[in-house]
What does this fold into?
Amino acid sequence: MNDFLRHVACQTGATQLHGQDLETIQINLGPRCTLECRHCHIGASPRRDEIMTQDVIESLLRQLPDTACRAVELTGGAPELHPSFQPLVENLTALSLRVGVRTNLTIHQEPEMAGLAPFLRDRRVALTGSLPCYLEANVDRQRGAGTFVRSIAALRRLNELGYGITPELPLDLVYNPDGASLPPDQTRLEESYRQRLRAEHGVEFSRLLTITNMPIGRFRADLRRQGTEEGYFALLKASFNPRTLDRLMCRHQISVRWDGRLFDCDFNLALNLPVTTDHPDVSALAATSVTRRIATGAHCLGCTAGAGSSCAGALAA
It folds into this structure.
């Protein structure tokens, strides 16, 4: 039994964690990205060339109507770089699914992406953009020099198109700590973001989502270099919050990797911990039980620490 399950057993008596329903299918189109962020759990960069093939996409589109899922989220890397990104969005919206995209924001500043934002607006695609701080220096330290300025320019352009302004065009922002600490209170931090971005940059957004840095990928490598890995795990263990368990994203979604493998979440995807079924690939998506036993590890303590963490932000007050 790993550290996470020991905490679950101590608090609830359960020795395993199981899925509850299926609200969202997250599709990771590949780890290629225009940025190379220090905290990225996928290890995305401009040098990565893995990509979801057309065969996997077609299999996915065949399976989706037979699932209970009503929402799909596209992620990466920068999912917009996939050559079939726009046709895939068209096909997903044709299935009457709510479609969302997790974006690095700066992709909208690339010259070849000039028509991307209007395309997404016309199809009412929800956007979730990474902006780990409202201060330029902090963002550039995590994501690379010049990233903050380009992100603000992208947000202004999205606002001009109605994103973050009208309810049918949500534009959420994602905060993550710059180091080995837990996120502050999501509601109060959102107020600070809104005040600073509005006053200093004329930018509006829908919601702020706070996410804990998972002790995997590049962030864990940073912890080891700094000699703070043990202390960070101790913080996560000491901050375990049983009220987060029912709302953990792994209990309500399935992630599809670019090679067609299925995972309980994007973090398990990064660690290559597939769903615990006989056929953990996209061809069996519709048959995968929503009450499956979830693959867990010590990294899961990151999602249950403090107010909790998920792709949709904090989980508990």
